[in-house]
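[SOLVED] Need 3D model of a two-part complex

Original post:
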Amino acid sequence: MGAYVLRRLSYGIGVVFGVLFLLFILFFTVTKPDDIARRALGEKAPPEVIEQWKINHGYDRPLWPWQDWDDNLLFDHYERMLTFDFGLSDADDSPITERIASGVGPSLSLTVPLLVLGILVAIPLSLLVAFFRETYIDRMGVFLCVLAMSVSMLLYIIGAQFLIGKVLRWYPISGFDSNLLMLPRFLALPLIVGVLSGVGGDVRFYRTVFLEESSRDFVRTARAKGASEARIMTRHVLRNAMIPILTNVVLAIPFLFTGALLLEAFFGIPGLGSITVDAIAANDFSTLRTMVFIGSLLFILGQIATDLSYGLVDPRVRFE
Amino acid sequence: MMDLEPHVISNLVTGALLVGIALIARSVRRQRLWREAATQLWRRRRIAILVVGVYLAIGLLDSIAWKGGVPEDVVDVLPNAPLTLIDRAFLGSREASYSAPFADVEFYGGDPLRNPGSHPLGTDILGRDVLYLSLKGARVALLIGGLTSLIAIPLALFFGVGAGYFGGRFDDGVFFLISTLASMPGLLLLIALIMAMGRGTVSVCVALGVTSWVGFCRLSRAETLKLRELDYVAAARALGVTEIRIVLRHILPNLAHLIVITFVLMFSGLVLSEVVLSWLGIGVDGSWGQMIDSARNELSREPIIWWNIAAAGTALFGLVLAVNSVGDAIRDVLDPRTLKEAP
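Solution:
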């Protein structure tokens, strides 16, 4: 077990280095510091202003170690990202770390309920559909899932905002308030939209998992000994389907932090997703690469956590 | 090649695609397995296949362009611009501003239209016919789904089959690359790629391709690992068949059903991702995503202008639903693993 954890962690570190290298390629060589400066300052900025901007943002050094071993952007990029010293935004010179810190709270207040609600809706529904397999209800359920999956997220959001804000005129459709009493009012709509747009794919996936499990021998045995179908579904099928479900859920956790990009931006929630969207609009490369790095880091941690938690859920899993 | 104009290249590519489709159709008819799968598919999803066919036909009509043949009195066309069949069908349909479906007068102001009653879906803020724009979007959507798959699937096959079949260092390298790419959140990587490469149709397709090949690469690697241990591969090797030939004749044909399934299921996902990209301002010109994005604020006008977002949304929904539904049926028909689902 110990050796496995160690190996898994070191592979994860390797992947982090790979991600950082890819980011360097994308944000320093494909888009050169000169391009970044020009996009921040405008096409007609004089060369000396661009040079000054590059010095201020630390872009005035050579790219590769073989150009200057002690002072180059590649090593600097690794050092700063790995020590979480993200520096200044390329667009408005504000410190990135502070902005990210201020975005975590609002992001989590949307995405944690979204994840929990999504699971609470998807698993009972898919159990129900799997329970009625090969019947009219199953076929209707699968068809509704495909239907729900075929609508663009954007249309869900626009439709919901239009209905609540324009047709019914219930309440302001976008905004945020950290006051706990006001919060549900602003979170209700993004939550409904988020669950609705995700439920189709989830139910279909879980249904396949449940169906696979319900054709196993132990299910037949349980049926033979006279266990009721409902008990079989919850006791035998659901429990054995935990591994794929767990994988699906844990891999979704990193997105709690990077936030639901569209939902946050449309519903005016000042979280990490909104920061990313603003960074795209403002050509803010340093913020963008920081967000990609944080997202990847969390994803890698999530993967390691999933791999290690298999043993907790399923005692048959052995680590070699 | 350099002196060919874009529309000539587009015509040639369309021709090549048609020939390719004809060749594929011929080989489907020849082999019993594929012929039966096609028959079953047709029996199960007749309507969805017809809908996809309609979209393909519209995309085709919009892909063949030539110059000239424009009447003198048409104003809003650049002289000597190549026009497609769809463009020609809607020549001179442009109005000054909004008009409602089948209206005779402009939406604001009430001035008479140039072509009263001839816009079944109304016109947008610039006076362009919404039906025309929706039809034009079909080609863009097919391009996004098709071109991206043509980038992603060969890439995934090359690395996946290579890694699975040859193993060793190459496998380690590919596996590391896959883990690295898969660790970066899809949408963020997509945005980063497009921001770095610049905006435009080709860079959007390349970025979508780079972010979407990983899943299929993993799948084809796993399948190849299984296939390489089978008896007929060992037999072929014993007979002295070269490695390349084994991969081409014995491994790839056994991945064909996965290629088809992946292609169809990937397609709708790609079309939907483009909508999000359009909203972020880094999408493809003329797509339904851009129509939806530019029309979304018009819902807050008074009275409500709903027809352009409804048209683009319906066109998008129709294509994605039809492709998803065909994809589901293809998976059921081609993938024997799902047969186990029946109790």
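Edit: Chain A touches chain B through 51 residues (CB under 8 Å).
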